[in-house]
């Protein structure tokens, strides 16, 4: 077991979302038409950090549906995010471990997504070995299905999307000047473009609240909002941040995972240095009123990644 960094988050209860009753009658009627039956129960999903509507709906005929919705006027940023998620899900092959997109409504000032309902749960916190193994296996399936990245998505390369991250060490220097080895960490991060190239669609947001573990022990990956094209092993490193903070020996897990077993340790360290700068900076940003737990989540991830990098480097 590695050192535990207690998480301050109320896991599973981090989102402040719209409820079914908050949706306009026009939108509720539209959803019921697409579902084919009146909605009799709506269970809002409390995980995550966005305020858009995201609920499991149970209909009068017994069917279940997962529906997301956001107002293009009142929640413009989140409506755009759902629109982009729909575009990306539509291009992802059926072999990818992701819930299927069933329908989209993008009119009347609302973006509404109907997704396959999956009987599943998020990985338990603190992380358990079985959930981590299922998630590692899921990412291996994802890499197989998404290499090369699906055509037509026009995704940025990892090196382009993350180009600003090395510069965030300037903020860390100014706000945490007593941290050791700042210059070495910044120098590592500056090399990230040299080690992260590839042809795989990389999710980049692999956390417990975006993972569904089914009763058969297999896992699916949700919320495909921020994919880029890069090295197939990156998502497996991102996955390990939560388990590392919970005390799991994630370096042993990386050594055992097919996607990371042969990745040079220095390459992993470079990515950790890149992520540490991002999370430490973002944790200092103002708290958005629509996501009260976002900054403390980012600060915690920054502390976890920094301690992990320091242990790996012997700092």
> Strand percentage, roughly?
5-15%
What is the arithmetic mean of pLDDT?
92
The poorly predicted ranges are none
Please name the fourth-level CATH homologous superfamily of the largest domain.
Answer: Aminoglycoside phosphotransferase (APH), C-terminal lobe
Tell me what the CATH architecture of the largest domain is: Alpha-Beta Complex
How far from one another are the termini? 19 Å
Order of helices and strands: HEEEHEEHHHHEEEEHHHHH
Radius of gyration: 20 Å
According to DSSP, the number of beta strands is 9
Say what the CATH topology of the largest domain is: Aminoglycoside 3'-phosphotransferase, Chain: A, domain 2
Structural class assignment? alpha+beta
Structure in words:
This protein has 315 residues and is of the alpha+beta class. The chain is built from 11 helices and 9 strands. The chain has helices at residues 25-35, 76-91, 129-145, 158-161, 169-175, 182-189, 234-239, 241-245, 250-256, 265-282, 294-313, and strands at residues 39-44, 53-59, 64-71, 101-107, 110-115, 200-202, 211-213, 219-221, 228-230. It is globular.
Task: Note the main attributes of this structure.
single chain; 315 residues; alpha+beta; Phosphorylase Kinase, domain 1; Aminoglycoside 3'-phosphotransferase, Chain: A, domain 2; 2 domains; 5-stranded antiparallel sheet; two-stranded antiparallel ribbon; 9 strands; 38% helix
